[in-house]
Amino acid sequence: MDLEDIWQNVLGSTEILRMYMPRLGVASASDLPYIFLAESDVNRGDTVVRKGVVKVDKPVIYLTDGSPQFYGFKFEDELKVNPETLKTFLIMRGVQLPSFKYTQSSSLEVYEGSLQDAIDEYSDLLARKENTDTGLIKGLSGYWQFSVLAYVTNIVAKSAPDNIRGIIKRLNERDRK
User: Fold this and answer.
1) By CB distance 3.0 to 4.6 Å, which of 38, 46, 81, 121 could disulfide with 75?
2) 102 assigned to some structural domain
3) Of 6-10, 58-62, 83-87, which range is least confident?
4) How far apart are CA 146 and CA 14, in angstroms?
5) ∠ CA(115), CA(24), CA(78), 5° rounding?
6) What total number of domains does the chain contain?
7) Closest Cα partner for 148 from 62, 30, 36, 7?
8) Hey, how many other C-beta atoms are within 10 angstroms of the C-beta on 98?
9) CA angle 74, 119, 71 (to 5 degrees)
10) pLDDT in tens, 25-40
11) Residue 87, number of CB atoms within 10 A of its CB
């Protein structure tokens, strides 16, 4: 399957079931915990559970526009996609991520039950714990990276107005000193 086919499949199947509530920080890195759920490609009827964190470094002025840096997403290892090709591919489709470093780490488990049962269980668990920090994402197991990127892109977009105000405030405070 080529990159365009993968992208179209991911767009049609990714669903953000629960969004991370806090905004990204401007003075420090932000950790974006998530739980990714997908039907298992190996054990039919089971669910793949990937629990992870994407660390988004604080904004840095010296990186050029449109040059995000991805670490831990395994694009080359699992999908045989060169990071530069990926950046160009995303830009050509109107997806522009700020020039942050995006570092992903995760663990992989198998939930013995259907995808819907896993969604219900993890949604309930997060609600009981009143956890507003962890996102819940549904997608395709073989292309989890794109679903996680879609999730991060949503958070970045929602945080942008507050982040811009925060950066301007910090610059004004610095200039007053």
Assistant:
1) 81
2) yes
3) 58-62
4) 9
5) 45
6) 1
7) 36
8) 20
9) 15
10) 767 788 999 999 999 9
11) 18
Name the token pair of 107. 């663990």
Q: Are strands 135-138 and 30-39 parallel, antiparallel or unpaired?
A: parallel
- Report the sign of the C-alpha dihedral through residues 152, 63, 83, 89, in that order: positive
Q: Identify the residue whose tokens are 């509530």.
A: 21
The C-alpha atoms of residue 78 and residue 82 are separated, in whole angstroms, by: 11
Confirm whether 11 is domain-assigned: yes
The 10s digit of each residue's pLDDT in 128-139 is 999 999 999 999
Describe the strand order of the beta sheet including 15-18 as a list of residue ranges. Answer: 15-18, 135-138, 30-39, 47-56, 101-111, 69-71
Nearest Cα neighbor of 27 from 67, 68, 48, 57 is 57
- Identify whether 176 is part of a domain: no
Position with higher pLDDT, 27 vs 152: 152
Q: At what angle do helices 144-176 and 3-13 cross, to 10 degrees?
A: 80
Residue 121 belongs to domain spanning = 3-167
Domain membership flag for residue 175:
no
